[in-house]
Amino acid sequence: MSSGIIFEDFDAKSLDALAEISGRSFASLMDSFKGDSHIGICRHFVLNYLEESNYSECAYKDGILVGFIIGRLHGSSTDGKPYLSGLKSQIESDLSGDPVGRGYLDMQNMVNSMQADLMGGLCTNDCAEILLYAVDPDIQGSGTGRRLLSRFRSHAYAEGCRTMSLLTSDYCNVGYYQHIGFELYREGRLDVSGTHTPIYIFTSGLIDALHQVGTRY
Fold first, then answer.
1. What pairing do the DSSP bridges indicate for beta strands 127-135 and 163-169?
2. What are phi and psi of 38, to 5 degrees?
3. What are phi and psi of 91, to 5 degrees?
4. By C-alpha distance, which of 115, 120, 118, 117 is closest to 132?
5. The CATH number of the domain where 79 resides is what?
6. Residue 21: pLDDT above 90?
7. Does some domain include residue 132?
8. Which pLDDT does position 81 carry in this prediction?
9. Higher model confidence: residue 82 or residue 106?
10. CB of 7 closer than 8 Å to CB of 148
11. Domain range spanning residue 83?
12. Cα separation of 60 and 88, whole Å?
């Protein structure tokens, strides 16, 4: 059970905690960018999605961040988040001076471009998008992720969204999204340094999906 969990909107003071959870939740991806820039890479990874979001919520247990979800409702505007954009630009400047950091930035730029291409036709005003979603590996299976996703789905539905989409890859648990009612919409491939990584777009209707959230996370 995920008892004792408190949900709060994102606070900039939680950025490092989000970055740490991302680094561990997406270890198979982040470990390929090990080095002096690793912390900066994890922070940029989170900022890349926060900057484009208009929904973000964190889950805390005993005052410690244990999970979060970052999303975008395409029919609603974002606030621009200038303070995050400035921090992201500074981190990008630092990363560009390191070969590992430059490799990560190249990869992230390709992902952003591919996301825009593959999402074509989906990002209408009644669509919500999961940008980044992670739970501390130590508490996966507690239901915390299920509650984070359910809260986002409910919010999106109340705001007029009727579909939800996400981009993911083999670095994540693709089967989890299929388990909770998402269907494969489109596939692509990310080619980085000779490595070919499948990319998937999943979608789910919100009208019938509000009670179909799985319990693994």
1. parallel
2. -60, -45
3. -65, -40
4. 115
5. 3.40.630.30
6. yes
7. yes
8. 67
9. 106
10. yes
11. 5-205
12. 25
CA distance linking residue 90 with residue 113, whole number of Å = 21
On whether the CB atoms of residues 190 and 111 are closer than 8 A, the answer is yes
**Which amino acid appears at position 89 of this protein?**
S
Task: Answer yes or no: is 100 within a domain.
Answer: yes
Whole-number Å distance between alpha carbons of 34 and 112 = 21
Rounded Cα distance, 162 and 104, in Å: 34
Predicted structure pTM score: 0.86
Report d(CA 203, CA 59) in Å as an integer. 24
Burial 94-129 (b: 16+ CB within 10 A, else e): ebeebebbebbbebbeebeebbeebbeebbeeebbb
Distance of CA 215 to the CA centre of its chain: 19
How many domains, the chain? 1
Judge whether 43 and 126 are in contact, CB under 8 Å: no
Residue 215 domain-assigned? no
Q: Quick check: is 112 in a domain?
A: yes
Q: Which of 144, 161, 154, 132 is nearest to 56 (CA)?
A: 132
**Which residue is it, tokens 């981190």?**
91
